[in-house]
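Task 17 of the worksheet. Students: predict the tertiary structure of the chain below and write it out as structure tokens. Keep your answer in the requested format; marks are given for formatting as well as content.
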Amino acid sequence: MGLLLIIGTYNEAATIGPVIEEALSACRGAGVGADLLVVDDASPDGTAELVTKVANEEAAVHLLERPEKLGLGSALRAGIRWGLERDYTTFGFMDGDLSHDPNDLPRLVAALDTADLAIGSRYVPGGAVVGWPTFRRWLSQLGNAYVRAATGVTARDTTAGFRVFRRQLIESIDIDTMRAEGYSFEIDLTLRSWRGGYRIIEVPITFRERTEGVSKMNTGIVAEAVWRVLVWGIQGPRRPVPPTSPAADPPR
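Model answer:
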């Protein structure tokens, strides 16, 4: 099996159809074998029903329904477990609101030729954010600077929700011990990868603020990130262990 792209959804009926269509089209156009799994938390707007209709016509689309809103972190963990049981070799995350351009997927997958984790990054040269007010951009950049200062991790965009990674990486991380929800889950995955000596590449992307639906960001998600990062910084090493993966060595 190839790539499993996991999308956690809650009230994304307005955009999930185009996201699925464009993601599969981009992958197929680049010769990337990909399936797509939507993990829906009982969206009242009919997201799951729309995905079911697509899945009935498209064998590469799958739906995992959950009985209530349980959070992004647990949705992504559930998707990873689903994929591990079905022998996928590569995993990916993206948002279901068209904030991430599906046409960037092939570039992220290609980056795994020399990496274990490829992050679609807003904060490396060539990356950008469109449609955010200045305060939101500053908050995001400050948050990532806080993560780097507290933990020593070198990635510029640890909170990015657009990423792909190798099966070997996720198998080395005990996801059952990952309790973070919200964007803290992305930070935890990045930090565990870095501390484990896995090679991380940041691929510049343009993130566009959603035009449909409502952002899931709230003060609870921010507060969780602040205290979890502080704990991770205190508990863990500030440098990675020696490289342990085939992709960890620089390309020759």
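Marker's comment: The longest strand covers residues 3-9. The mean pLDDT is 92.
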